[in-house]
Design goal:
By secondary structure, the chain is α/β, with parallel strands linked by helices. The protein has eleven helices and eight strands. The protein has an eight-stranded parallel β-barrel, surrounded by six helices.
Length: 233
Amino acid sequence: MKIKIYADGANLEEMKAALRTDSVAGFTTNPTLMKKAGVTDYLKFAVDSLHHIKDKPISFEVFSDDFEEMYIQARTLADLADNVYVKIPVTNTKGEFSGELIKRLDSENIKMNITAVFTLDQVHTILKNLLSDTPHIISIFAGRIADTGVDPLPLMRTAIEVIKNHNPHLQLLWASPREVLNVYQANQVGCDIITVTSQLLNKLNLYNKPLSEFSRETVQMFFDDASSSGFTL
């Protein structure tokens, strides 16, 4: 597959384990994942992560709702290491577009991962504010789009064409996958990157597994669990 797999999470031990695999090309995290992982010191977590992840891209997200404060946070994160991509939400919580911030950081050659993108209109508006050749990432939340009952594949196909026509240095990321199948779908439509949680990462070795054998193993699992539980009827 041509698509690059980025490990998505904030558990440092899991990140270090992913770093040792050949399949992981980069890393992403966000404040929600950090909260779930018990991170309490954002900057320490970022520095500790970069102590191990030195040669692969890693995305850290700003967390202010004020654009000027986002800018200060973005500069702080970008200054930590050259492999840092700063995650900038496409809007703040008020729905105000982050265009001026995106344009400002782009003009200063700060690598961004523009995140929480859901529509083609957002993609077009983002691109109007990316004028340099800095290698940014645009993250479309295909999994959450699918959660609404909408097939994300047509949107992703169009998005990759629009993005590459604007600037071939930009990369499209399929965010929030729900199943391993999404990895192969994202690869087929031409996405550059897909984020994968440790749970999905552990399932990648199932590719082309014979279904008849998978069926037998599933029955074996049910049998073993019933036996070990001491069930009787």
